[in-house]
Amino acid sequence: AKDHGKGRFATYDQELDRRSVQHAELGAELRQAMGSGELRLMYQPIVSLPEGRVSGVEALVRWHHPERGAIPPTEFIPVAERTGLIVPLGRWIMREAANQAARWTTNPLTSSVTMSVNVSARQLREPGFPEELAGVLAETGVEPRMFTVEVTETAVFESDAGLAALRGVHQLGVRVALDDFGTGHSSLGLLRSCPVDVLKVDKSFVDGVTGTAEQAAIAISLVQITNTMRLAAVAEGVETQDQANTLFELGYQLAQGFHFAHPLTPEEVTGLLIRTAAE
Ligand code: C2E
Ligand code: CA
Ligand code: CA
Ligand code: CA
């Protein structure tokens, strides 16, 4: 029995080793990728339901690896967080998104679009994060109120440093969004202790809006809470017209998802903004 146990542990160790080697490789490659144009940002529209217009966009990072092809962010962001590479990567993302936001500001047909950027827990906790963000906005000339930082509840919940940084961000006039709301170590109390402007209601709750009363309950409660607290709510992962109609009836003003648009190139977003502004 002892041998059997040992054997199992050996296999487990090998599996761990194999995975950490893969992570180390991916980490090294990511470091290179940052300087080589393999990373790009795509922008997914956030749509105003009453007006049917693009109100803002969320920046989503893409990695086109020369040999491995497209590596999804769900694969490399966690590696970047573990290796600390998220700090320089996050800096690059922030600057790139601000530069793009600044380009849209120069044209009256595109100037009303807001920019949301995902910030991971590690990046938020990095000393000087709010000051750095202030610097990027000042250099690019982007108005703080046109910029949103998306963080998960867990990022705020886990550390006092995270919460302190969010207060700093909010003081700049930058908007704060809680991402994937309801899926983390959430507590509704966070809505009072944390300077929140926007709740992004996770897709898992949006999926339920056209289902039974029980399946729809959380999406219904969350929009009521946000309306009472004067926060904005964004319904995430909307895939059907039926869901969009129901969300609007429930009081949602903003939505995002493949039903409206997939993540797009900056040129595609510009085209969409110009077309809808002309309508
Ligand atoms: P997220 O912040 O919740 O981003 C939304 C994800 O849902 C995106 O996947 C988007 O393409 C996808 N999505 C949007 N609409 C729909 C829909 O209708 N149906 C379905 N099934 N999916 C939809 P993506 O781009 O693969 O990003 C995955 C996650 O990776 C993000 O989740 C975020 O946590 C992380 N991530 C992406 N870009 C960045 C970044 O620049 N920085 C950081 N720190 N994390 C990022
Ligand atoms: Ca997000
Ligand atoms: Ca989300
Ligand atoms: Ca998510």
From TrEMBL:
Q: Which UniProt keywords apply?
A: Membrane, Transmembrane, Transmembrane helix
Domain (EAL): residue spans on this chain: 23-277
Q: Which domain of life is it from?
A: Bacteria
What is the designated name of this protein? Uncharacterized protein
Q: Covered range within the whole protein? A: 585 to 863 of 910
